[in-house]
Amino acid sequence: MSDLCDFGLVGLAVMGENFALNVESRGYSVAVYNRTTEKVDQLIEGRAAGKRFVGCYSLEQLVKSLKPPRKVMTLVKAGPAVDSIIEQLIPLMSPGDIIIDAGNTHFTDTERRTQYVQEQGLLFIGTGISGGEEGALKGPSLMPGGSLDAWPAVKPMFQAAAAKVGPNQDIPCAEWVGPRGAGHYVKMVHNGIEYGDMQLICEAYLMLKEALGLNNDQLYDVFDQWNRSELESYLIEITRDIFSVEDDTLGSGEDGGKEHLVDKVLDKAGAKGTGKWMSQLALDLGVPSTLVTTAVYARSLSAAKDSRTRASKILKGPTGSFSGDAKSFVEDIRQALYASKICSYAQGFVQLQAAAAEHDWPLNYGDCALLWRGGCIIRAQFLDRIKEAFDDQPELENLLLYPYFTAAVHQAQDSWRRVVTVATELGLPVPAFSTALAYFDSYRRARLPANLLQAQRDYFGAHTYQRVDVEGAFHTEWLEKRRQPKP
Q1: Is the pLDDT at 65 greater than 90, yes or no?
Q2: Helices (DSSP H) in 265-381: which residue ranges?
Q3: Residue 475 CB neighbour total at 10 angstroms
Q4: Which residues are catalytic?
Q5: Burial 191-201 (b: 16+ CB within 10 A, else e)
Q6: What DSSP letter does each residue of 35-79 carry, written as one string?
Q7: Of the candidates 42, 116, 103, the residue with the CA atom closest to the CA atom of residue 75
């Protein structure tokens, strides 16, 4: 190995260590540093033994170990730690060198850091990275944004390390997203869609388990079949696998056989915040990203486990199970899941379009879909259709209006409505299915009851209103013109 390395990485938690090993496996030499230097020794003496690694015990040593233009990636906890590392790196680096933040960063921090680092004569990349620990090691989805001039220097390495898709598995899931915080924004939308996908799958599980009474072996078979359909995806695949895992923690169940681990997992979901970010930013933009918002609230309600347990002893609702044809209803649930998923992704891309307009990001939406096709958590066959849609119609305003997706939701509509109806009749909560259907029904109507809402606002607050027949803004003294109620 030459004296100087191709790439430097700061942060040797599992994601950082795995990504460093990934990059090295693609033919690059890697210098690594961690604040807790024992981790450096553990990597060099362990998984990196005999490989093209250099262990460093200070940021200064790390920078001196790199070829120009130096490329230093941080994979540390988002927030002040990243700013601290940037401040320490700047005086050690030279014009044209590149600082890369691959943490789970809010896009506004990347907007700020890009400008600041460029003012110091350096280049900055904020990149989303998705795929978890396995993806980091074997090939993640990478969503870089920041200083465009930095991209040529890191493109070969990023695309070598990224997941590959396509008929020949030669299309990398790593492409330039846009300036400043665009990469981290796209990653945030990915995570928000992931929230929606997971909630929808959980609601399908609830209907299969509670309405139809399927056991875990039967659930495995259903999800295995679904993974051979339009729903083929990483999340459907791992859901299938979960139903096959037996619990060996406490031994056998009462009948002497193994119980399934999923039934022992507490129904109390956690969250890291990116779904909430997407929901908050959707509100700021005025776009209806209702699926991610519903999914965030569903997690919040799940977290109120103690309160729900108390409420379950007091609040009553319908009981029973589905009495129709079970096989047909399984297909109804599959169709409802697919249609709801289409609405969720449609909302995500509408938010990306609004954000691109707001922040002057020239996003390529087909490329965004391709970035999510492999390596990441929401990777799915379905994303090929989204790329086709935006490649065919780059200005497509909503995926629901593209012929393939229009036909898909029309075909699924009767099943979708049956599932929501049965869930309501049985008292089974399917907030994401219901929200997706409400979005579809609202979006397909040329006229909504917001005329009454706007009249109410004008009545109590003189907020004015527009008319359907005359241009301009109007205000009415509703109180004066109203009909007097009978005494």
Answers
A1: yes
A2: 274-285, 290-303, 305-312, 326-359, 365-371
A3: 11
A4: 187, 194
A5: bbbbbbbbbbb
A6: SSTHHHHHHHHTTTTTSSEEEESSHHHHHHTBPSSPEEEE-S-SS
A7: 103
The region of weakest confidence among 152-161, 191-200, 377-386 is 377-386
pLDDT of 103-116, one tens digit each?
A: 999 999 999 999 99
Distance CA 58, CA 445 (A): 61
Cα 65 to Cα 34: distance, rounded to the nearest angstrom: 15
Alpha carbon separation from 93 to 23, 66, 69, 187 (Å, rounded): 22, 10, 9, 28
Please write the tens of the pLDDT for every residue from 14-58. Answer: 999 999 999 999 999 999 999 999 999 999 999 999 999 999 999
C-alpha span between 218 and 33 (Å, rounded): 48
Pairing of strands 246-247, 98-101: unpaired
Give me the pLDDT at residue 1, please.
45
Q: What is the pLDDT of residues 447-478, one digit of tens each?
A: 999 999 999 999 999 999 999 999 999 999 99
Closest CA to 439 of 351, 314, 319: 351
How much is the average pLDDT of 201-208?
98
Alpha helices, H only, 56-181: 59-64, 80-89, 107-119, 132-138, 151-161
Q: Residue 170 to residues 2, 127, 137: CA-CA distances in angstroms?
A: 29, 21, 18
Q: How far is CA 284 from CA 132, 146, 355, 358, 397, in A?
A: 29, 22, 10, 11, 19
Residue 248: band (very low, low, confident or very high) from pLDDT cuts 50, 70, 90: confident
Any idea how long the chain is?
Answer: 487
Q: What angle do CA 448, 449, 453 make, to 5 degrees?
A: 130
